[in-house]
Amino acid sequence: MDSMLDFFSANYNMITIVILSIFLGIEVISRVPSVLHTPLMSGANAIHGVVIIGAIIVMGQAEDDNYLALLLGFLAVILGTLNVVGGFVVTDRMLEMFKKKPKK
Fold first, then answer.
1. What is the dihedral of CA 73, 74, 80, 82, to 10 degrees?
2. CA distance linking residue 6 with residue 97, whole number of Å
3. pTM higher than 0.70
4. 38-50 pLDDT per residue, tens
5. What angle do CA 49, 54, 60 make, to 5 degrees?
6. Start-end of H helices in the chain
7. Which residues, at least 6 apart from 38, have a Cβ–Cβ distance to it below 8 Å?
8. What are the residue ranges spanned by the domains of the chain?
9. Most buried pick, 21, 30, 55, 93, via CB within 10 A?
C-alpha cells in the first residue's frame, strides 16, 4: 500500500495530465457530428500503424528473459493490427455507400 502511495505522490503531475486528457477527449468526441464520426475514427485507427512499429521496436529491444515487455509488445502488435485493419474496413464500407449502384 505504501508503494502505491509513493508512486502516486511521485507521479502526481503525470496522473493529473492523463485524467485531464481523458476528460478533454470525451468532451471533444462528444461534440463531433454523427456524419463525421466514422471518417474521423477510421483515420484515427489507421494511425495505429505507429503503435505497431513502436511495439515491434520494444519487442526487439527487450531482453530475452523480460517476459512482461515481450508479452505487452506482442499484445500491442496484435491489437494495433486489428485496429488498423478495422479502420480500413470501416473506411471501405463507408466509401461503398457513395458508389452508384448498377441499374438492372
1. -170
2. 54
3. no
4. 677 766 776 778 8
5. 130
6. 2-10, 12-30, 34-46, 49-61, 67-96
7. 90, 94
8. 1-31, 34-104
9. 55
